[in-house]
Amino acid sequence: MANAIDIAHLQGWVGRSQSNGETVTSLQAAQFAALFDREAPPRQGDIVPGLWHWANAFPPQRQSLIGPDGHPVRGGFLPPVPLPRRMWAGGEVSFLRPIRVDALLRRNSTILSVTLKEGGSGPLVFVQVQHEISDREGPAISEIQNIVYRDDPAPGQPAPKGKPAPADADHSEAWHPDEVALFRYSAATFNGHRIHYDLPYTREVEGYPGLVVQGPFTATKLFSVLTEKLESPVVRFSYRGMKPLFAGDALTVALKATGDGQYSIWAADSAGEIGMQAEAQVAP
Asked: Whole-prediction pTM value?
């Protein structure tokens, strides 16, 4: 398959950009507050908690331009990578200023790089996208998003072994995202990827054993658990998916202070293996 990937053609998308305006509405804030079990949502003019801007991650795509996996068809803003699996693999978010409920935002997105690598299960294509988000007062969030495309697993191919979670967390708590929570997150973010709600498709087409917890859902949960323990705001948050996490599993979210205002946060599955690893820097 790697020989069939015309990486030079795909790299022609580097530098491509798109821009769209959006508003963080009171309804979106209320939906996220309900999903994360908060008693009261932020009201008009209140600061939007970190990563809640992902409710406005991308402009809605017309139904006729949605592919069989539930994602927009390829070859528009993102390059037409000829690999079936597409995942939000990780990224880094820098918080420059707070954004507030009902603020009018402008998002400028640019393809930074397209690279081909050979992984243990076959070819991998990584697409890195930069998002710059501003309100009327200027830049508020600078974000790097990493997207990975990969082939479907061979029949009977075992899942790769994960990395054990640290045993010396300063704080840990249980997290049980079920099928309803995944559906509500997909609805709040207008994410149509079928691996988060269509179990027959998830098992029979993409080869996962169960519905996959959305990467940004996990990242937002990690961020939320961390900020509940802090008095100072987070200025930088980076995260990386290590292995899929599945609906119905007994997950653990944990964190550890690593010095100089830095924290390590992770989500582990019931086998004690890390599904997502994150690092945060807190304002002095």
From this structure: 0.93
